[in-house]
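Appendix B: a complete holo record

For completeness, this appendix reproduces one full record from the ligand-bound portion of the collection. The bound molecule is flavin-adenine dinucleotide. The inputs are the chain sequence and the ligand SMILES; the output is the full three-dimensional arrangement of the complex, encoded as structure tokens. No fields have been trimmed.
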Amino acid sequence: MLNTIVIIGGGAAGYFAAIQCAEANKQLKVILLEKGSKVLQKVKISGGGRCNVTHACFDIKQLSQSYPRGDKQLKSAFSRFYTKDTVEWFESKKVKLKAEADGRMFPVSDSSQTIIDCLEKEVKRLKIEVRLETGVKKVSPSFHGGFDLFLDNGEKLSCRRVIVATGGSPKEEGLNWLKDLGMRIEPPVPSLFTFNIPDPNLTALQGIAVNMAKVKILDTKLETAGPVLITHWGLSGPAILKTSSLGARILAEKEYEFKVQVCWLENRKEEGVRQELFNLKAANPGKLMSSTFPFVLPKRLTSYLIQKAGLDEKANWGEVSKENLNQLIQCLMYDTYEVKGKTTFKEEFVTCGGINLDDIDFKTMESKRLRGLHFAGEVLDIDGITGGFNFQAAWTTGFIAGQAAAAE
Ligand SMILES: Cc1cc2nc3c(=O)[nH]c(=O)nc-3n(C[C@H](O)[C@H](O)[C@H](O)COP(=O)(O)OP(=O)(O)OC[C@H]3O[C@@H](n4cnc5c(N)ncnc54)[C@H](O)[C@@H]3O)c2cc1C
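The structure of the chain with flavin-adenine dinucleotide bound, as generated:
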């Protein structure tokens, strides 16, 4: 009995922890409990069915900066197992990963099933027992040492150590059984979402992408830069998702109603833009404004911004007043919208919040409050921006928890 390690949760973190634990100590009985009828369900649907396993960032300091929550703690954890180790681990199991131009890494098969098959094969090889439809209701430290687990089906299971890898819980009540063990919880709120903007003039531009724009949330310090995509419901793209991640808590407090300002000319200063427009007006009074527009933006977006500034696209530069030009600068650099609600990004969404990181010893992923109780994955108050960082946190914390739980 006390030779048994139980992992709760059959997701990426639970599977990786179970594999590491069984590999590190072959004398142990490793049991993985999953409340659902299938394991690795998020891996299956991740990255649009391709599974963005990790990110091609091999600098630990830079890597940890992609985690709005957990950056400090992960920095030390990454020195044990990070992106390079993930790539090597999967390669050692004959799964080659490839990096795309933006750094996201996928299996060369472009199928998440490759990752599932690899993890399942390891679980079989290491004789890890996986019990499906076996939810854990309660965990109690046992009088005799170790833990007693009370299962949904009425059974009781005893073990030496427990690894909790139950993923993000959208509601705080879902974590009450961990509160009962003395763990402190950061209230969960969603991260990685897009902005709903009920402005038909904007949403009519759906499909337009700008490679580099600056996004700012008014009345906050939130500001990011990167690609922005206009969708049929509002704004999306990496810069918006990053803003939602950095501001997960602030935007939840605002109940997802706030003003977003987009600068479509990310690398330009207002004075330079003004000078350029005024020079153009002075040099080309008889030329069509739209045909000599100086900034490289998608054509439909340019027309929209010119009209939004109250200008006629067919006007000559000579007909454009100073006020008109200032209005155009406002639209190009301080284009502001009312956000009313959010939409979950279908490629990847995560929970901000979970187990308070001050309660965890990152050398073992063990609770500082209850020894022998380890944690891995999204159940912790760790989440990253989109791009493979969330799975990397699951592999890293799963690796450390699994190895530590295997130790005598
Ligand atoms: C649509 C989508 C796409 C994504 N794509 C990517 C991507 O491409 N790249 C990336 O890095 N991240 C991606 N993510 C995020 C990533 O999937 C998660 O961060 C990651 O799966 C977390 O792993 P986990 O093992 O901690 O939790 P989970 O994968 O959520 O697994 C937890 C498991 O525990 C089980 N469980 C919960 N409670 C109990 C209980 N009491 N008893 C027994 N079992 C229990 C659950 O049923 C579940 O199977 C995506 C997320 C979503 C929703």
